[in-house]
Amino acid sequence: MGVRVTTEAVADEEKAAYWSGAVSRTLTPVEVLPLTGRPFDGLVESHRLGYVRISTLEADAARLSCTAELIARAPGAEPQVVVGVQVSGRAVLEQDGRRAEARPGGLVLYDTARPYAVDYPERFRTHLFQLPRRLLGVPERDLRHAAGVAVSALDGCGSVLAPFLGVLAASAQSFPAAVGHHLAGSVADLVSALVAQLADGRAADEPDDPNGHLVRRVREYIDDRLGDPELSPERIARAHHISVRYLHRIFEHEGVTVSRLIQRRRLESCARELGRHGGTAPTVSAVALRWGFVNPAHFSRSFRAAYGVSPREWRALEPAEAG
Predict the structure, then answer these.
(1) Where in the chain is the domain with CATH 2.60.120.280?
(2) How many CB atoms lie within 10 A of CB 277?
């Protein structure tokens, strides 16, 4: 069932606070600061498409901010990734010290686990697509590179994602639940691709690192072969014509060993598949085997250590619990 809230019948002096509360309940806790001197006018519409929440905000100029204090008040809230598709007006996003402006047709991406603010300098309309971060299966490092960046609808993944999300926002409520679940998977895949594109772009803009290109090639090699149970530092070093010792050395500044990276990426892939498909997913053992885990007991222990629940408990989480 969808949600629709407007300030139309609210007393003028209460409109801004009323709309702020509606946005906070529907999305994530935010503070709203109106940027006009007249009584505030706003609309929130929201509904689910599988595990993706789609919300449309239309309102007068305002600043929406999620502070560290607000985040601390909800320690159990699952981190979400939000992609905003600007329909009218401008959106100016600030996160992690970066500032990005999206004009109509453009996209912005942010992570609700860290403080952010979005300025809408004039009356605006925007579609927000919110999905649990854990279901993207992207490295934390890549997500930090991608958050706080604007994307043109004419460039790379933006040229595919922007029109697709626009159509979904207009028609999502018309899809049966089973179709909606599959479409949610498509949204997650496209957002994951967008994160990868933005992370690669940020890495290319950073100061030259003599080992940067090699590290990226090794990461791609690992991701392409996660299902191979024989994947190992020795095989990776041999494929890249370097010694195992040198391989470990170039990953020292990454803060993770190569073996740990392989296991982490396998677990992320398993978590993504189990979480996205819920009760319709293949058996836990089949998912584990597909991503390179040959010992079910070892997989269960590793999964619980990483996520705090067993693979079966993870798969049983309802969409509402997943964010």
Answers:
(1) 47-205
(2) 16
Between CA 66 and CA 113 the distance in angstroms is: 10
Residues of the chain with CATH 1.10.10.60: 212-316
CATH superfamily of this structure's domain 47-205 = Regulatory protein AraC (2.60.120.280)
21's tokens: 């509360």
Q: Which of 253, 262, 254, 233 is nearest to 245 (CA)?
A: 233
- With CA atoms as reference, report the closest residue to 109 among 89, 88, 90, 129: 129
Please give the pLDDT value at position 22: 93
Report helix, strand or coil for 63: strand
90-127 confidence digits (pLDDT tens): 999 999 889 999 999 999 999 999 999 999 999 999 99
pLDDT digits (tens, 9 = 90+) for 52-64: 999 999 999 999 9
Determine the Cα–Cα distance for residues 82 and 92; give it in Å rounded to an integer. Answer: 14
CATH number, span 212-316 = 1.10.10.60
**DSSP code per residue over 95-155:** ETTEEEEE-TT-EEEEETTS-EEEEE-SSEEEEEEEEEGGGT---HHHHHHHTTEEE-TTS
